[in-house]
């Protein structure tokens, strides 16, 4: 049985600044906040996103990344100063105790006076490649399933580092974030599994992706997201 409570060990925010490629911005470099933070439907008031077309918004208001993954990344990549403390992956929440295998799509979580709902796993993008100076870092994150997940905000309020995250409702116990993400990231089209997935409370972008995949009977080109290459016309 997964733990129903974990402690918000580190709360992180960041400001959007020019990033690695011309004309790009990112707030992936987040730092710990020791102050109580106000949360609205768009997330932490003191937090920003560099490209609102693909980051942030109500379906990706807060990003949670398991601290236990850091040891696996050190083992895989070697020592890296960014992996010495939370924030390497642009996360807002860092905890020990919950992973993609133990949380589920639609889980409702109380933290401080804020009510959150797990909306989707992360779809890693090329900015991780540039941040880590590892050309296939985004692909590694996708293939390992060490993506973290996003919350939508059901009830605004305040929260702070040290607060408890308490699981209060689990409507989809058979659909861990790891399982849902494995469907999205599969290069094999299992029509029945996709149809089952489409009955879940998916974020609109995931629903469009899987619906299009089912309709066209082909997996979309991931290279624009993973590598930052221009998207090919349909």
From TrEMBL:
Top-level taxon of the source organism: Bacteria
Pfam assignment, any one: YiiM_3-alpha
GO MF, one annotated term: molybdenum ion binding
InterPro entries tied to this protein: Benzoxazolinone_Detox_Enz (IPR052353), MoCF_Sase_C (IPR005302), Pyrv_Knase-like_insert_dom_sf (IPR011037), Tri_helical_YiiM-like (IPR005163)
Domain MOSC per the UniProt entry, residue ranges: 31-168
PANTHER family recorded: PROTEIN YIIM (PTHR30212)
Official protein name in the record: MOSC domain-containing protein
Lineage of the organism: Bacteria, Pseudomonadati, Pseudomonadota, Gammaproteobacteria, Pseudomonadales
């Amino acid at each position: 049985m997964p733990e129903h409570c974990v402690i918000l060990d580190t709360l992180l925010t960041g400001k959007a600044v020019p990033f690695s490629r011309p004309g790009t911005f990112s707030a992936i470099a987040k730092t710990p906040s020791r102050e109580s933070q106000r949360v609205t439907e768009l997330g932490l008031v003191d937090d920003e996103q560099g490209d609102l077309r693909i980051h942030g918004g109500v379906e990706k208001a807060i990003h949670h990344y398991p601290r236990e993954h850091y040891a696996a990344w050190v083992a895989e990549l070697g020592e890296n100063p960014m992996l010495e403390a939370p924030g390497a992956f642009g996360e807002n929440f860092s905890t020990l105790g919950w992973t993609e295998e133990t949380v589920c799509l639609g889980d409702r979580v109380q933290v401080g006076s804020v009510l959150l709902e797990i909306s989707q796993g992360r779809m890693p993008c090329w900015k991780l490649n540039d941040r880590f100076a590892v050309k296939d870092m985004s692909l590694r994150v996708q293939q390992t399933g060490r993506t973290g997940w996003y919350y939508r905000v059901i009830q605004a309020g305040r929260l702070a580092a040290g607060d408890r995250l308490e699981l209060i409702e689990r409507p989809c116990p058979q659909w861990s974030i790891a399982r849902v993400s494995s469907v999205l990231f599969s290069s094999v089209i299992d029509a029945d599994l996709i149809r089952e997935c489409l009955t879940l409370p998916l974020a609109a972008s995931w629903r469009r992706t899987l619906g299009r995949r089912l309709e066209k009977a082909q997996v979309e080109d991931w290279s624009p997201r993973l590598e930052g290459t221009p998207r090919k016309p349909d």
